[in-house]
Amino acid sequence: MGTRRRARELALQLLYQHEHTGADLEAMQTDFDEWTSATDGVREFADFLLRGTLASLEKLDEELSLQTTHWRLERLAAVDRNILRLALFELTHVPDTPPAVVIDEAIEIAKKYGAEESGRFVNGVLDGYVKRRHDGR
Predict the structure, then answer these.
(1) Is it true that domain 3-135 has CATH number 3.30.428.10?
(2) Cα separation of 36 and 14, whole Å?
């Protein structure tokens, strides 16, 4: 597994935990064996995604609400919601990663951690976001 994929997965796991517990980020990281055993590069990118997503949560959730007009955010599966948040953050804050790569990574992570239909759902939401942003809507 690549460095960035592993970082995205770690960020997802901690974002999910933070959403459900409100725990301190540093404490979560210190207590999470997968975090402490990860390489420096994985931890650095994961930390960037995690902190950036949390700092941008309000804006990310606004964008998600525009893309999921038939779904209230709180009704989305927590895993899907957090995968989408992370991917939207990466799409808007990591310009050197092509949108297709971000979407593909989010789909694969959704297939691994989400429900049976999560991959398709994540694909539809993110593809719609990229098309809407490209069209200037």
Answers:
(1) no
(2) 13
